[in-house]
Amino acid sequence: MNEFTSTRVGELVFGKLTVPIRKLEGDKAYPGKVVCWDDLPADLADAFDKWMFCAAVPSRNCAYLHDFQDFMRRAGRGWSGDWSAVVEKYL
What we know:
The protein has helices at 42-51, 65-73, 84-87; strands spanning 5-14, 17-25, 33-36, 62-64, 77-78, 81-82. With 91 residues, it is α+β, with helices and mostly antiparallel strands. It has one domain (5-87). The chain has a 4-stranded antiparallel beta sheet, covered by helices on one side. The protein is globular. The relative contact order is 0.21. The mean pLDDT is 92.
């Protein structure tokens, strides 16, 4: 899987949580917006990673912005488990 550099292009706010929105840079980089696991609190990153089990991602350590938004809007519930106890700390 390709690794790309990223540039911060905005931020997403969910309750007490503010997450940078990034854009990947490089040859063949996904042109849309992403969220990077490194920008998340460790417990939330771990829960989101597990929720995203087997999902497509645009680059190592990054997820499509819409997937992270779905995760937060669902409060960590659905798809592959329930991580609401982690997510609710940030809402």
